[in-house]
Amino acid sequence: MVANDPFHKGLDPSMKTFLGLAPLPNNFQSGDGLNYAGYSFVAPATDKQVDVAFKIDYRFNDKNSVYFRWISGHQNTLRDSVNGGLQTFPGLPAVVNTYRTPRNFAFNYRWAPKPTLANEFVVGMNRFGYKFENPAVASAQKTPFNPNLVTAPLNSYLGNNRFLTTIQLVDNVTWVKGPHIIKTGINFRYGREIDQRGSIGALNAIPQVTFGVAFPAASTTNTNPVNTAQYKTPSTGINTSNDQQTCMPRSTTCWDEWFATGWICGAARSGCVQAGGNA
User: Which helix (H) or strand (E) holds 257?
Assistant: First the structure.
């Protein structure tokens, strides 16, 4: 198809480099049997978790005592499979790394001036952070392509971060009077959520180049329509006379060049080649 380009522009260097990151196929049970096939491998994922917890108690006397408690840690999932973060091909970076950072502390002061009266004051903070990061965002932004029929080697989304913080202040008074126990107190709680969005729904807050059909969704025409007669490519399946006479030997050659050098064949449906002067 590249050889049949009537404008003789050849493949875009950026797209050629982008698709060249994909390895040779090893699964021919997927694809169309001619223009593209699949690649299967077991992508690794790693969970690293660290937890730290300690408490310090100090008793001044029979009436006054304090304690301090701290809990923290992290649980980081590298190549997060639950969020679609496995690497697309061997040797390439993960799509999503998820970082979780819990923090929690409490300070308690207890004052008991009488055996029947006690006051307990507690102040504390709880924070939990989620970070869904794209480790390859810097390099992927140079090739922000979203192909339709093939797996993108790199993804150029920015990722999302969310931090939940709660600060709490509690003061309780307990009074024992004969057979009765009377309790009262106050509880102040302040919550804050910081949401840093790199994507909103299915849209990414970063410039991207999408190859596909019927976009936007309400459209019934191709985004990048290809003139099959001008480029001498088939407009239907692989068993037409046009395929047998013209396309099949050319596509067989392009098959090797696609995966060896990053060239692409059969991109008429993914919109990598366009008619007219559209970029």
Answer: helix 248-261
